[in-house]
Known about the structure:
The structure is a single chain. By secondary structure, the chain is an alpha/beta fold. The protein is 42% helix and 19% strand. Strand 1, helix 2 and strand 2 form a beta-alpha-beta unit. Helix 2 (49-65) runs antiparallel to helix 10 (283-292). Residues 1-28 have low confidence and may be disordered.
Amino acid sequence: MKKRLVVLMALLLCLGTLFANGEIEKGKDTSSYPEKVIKIIVPYGAGGGADITVRLFSKYLEPILGQNIVIQNVTGGSGTIGWTQLINAKPDGYTLGYGDCLMSNGKLLFDGVQYDNSSFTPISKYASDPHIIVVSKSSGITSMDDLIAKAKENPGKMTFGLGGAWSSHDFLRISLEEKTGIKFNRMVFQSGAAAVNAVAGGNCDVAVPFTAEALAQIEAGNVMPLAITSSTRFAIIKDIPTLKELGFDFEHVMWRALVGPAGIPEAIIKILDKAMAQVLTDPEYQAQVLNAGSFALYEGYDTFKDSFNTSHEFYKKMILETSK
C-alpha cells in the first residue's frame, strides 16, 4: 500500500511539473480562462499608432472575454524594452502584447537584445496599416516631386522623422532612398505622433506617421500630406494619392497583432483568437477603426503563426542586406 502511495505521489508530482511548464495542453482546464485582469504591453508611447489601435480593439475585447484589460505603455529602446518585458512574462495568457512586423528581429538591430521569433506566441493579426508622407507647411513642398527635388539639392540634410529607430518608418525611408537615389538625415522620435508633431512645429522636414497618428494634424491643416503608402486610397482622406499613383512602384504597410510570450497553451490561444475574430467582424468596431485611421485586417492563429515567421525571415533578409 505504501509503495502504491509513493508511486501515485511521484506520478502526480511529475504531471504537475509538466503542466507548470506548459508541456501538457490536452485535458488542461482552460474553460474558466480568463479569471482575472489581462495586461497588454504596448512598447511605444501613448497616442501613437500602436497605442491607438490596441486601446480600440481592447475596448471591444473586454466584454467578449468578460474581464478588464489594462494597457501598459513601456517605452524606450525602440520597442525592445517592452518586448523584453513581454517575453519574460509568465505564459499564462494574462500578459499579452502588441506585435508588429519588425518585433522579432531586434537581435539584429540592437545590442543586448536576446529575443527572436521563437520568443513570442503569435495570436491574431488585427490590422495592416500604411504610412502617410507629410512635410511641414513652411517647407514650400506640395508634392512628392517637390520633395525628391529638394532632397537631391540638399543630400543628407533634410531631416526625416522616425517613430522609433529601425521601426517600419525606417524601412520606408530605406525604400524611398533606394527608389529615388536620395539621402535623408534620420531624426528619431519615441512615436510617429511625436514625429508628425515635430513636422507641424517646423522642427523636422518630413515624417511618415501611420494614418492614425497623422489624421489630427492633417485635419488641422498643420502639415502637408503628399502620399499614402498603401495600394489603394484611404476612404476618409480620399484626396491623398497613393505612391503607386504617383509613379513609385512599391507599397509599404505594417501589420499589427496580438502576441504573447512563447509557451502559451494552445487552448488559451484559441480562446483569444476566437474573441479577436468576433471583434474584427463587429461593424461598430470596423467603423471606429476607420475613423481612427487604421486598416482593420483579421488573420487568425492557424494562418498567422506561419505568416509571422515568414515576415520574420523577410525583414531579416532586408536588415542583413542593408547592413552590408
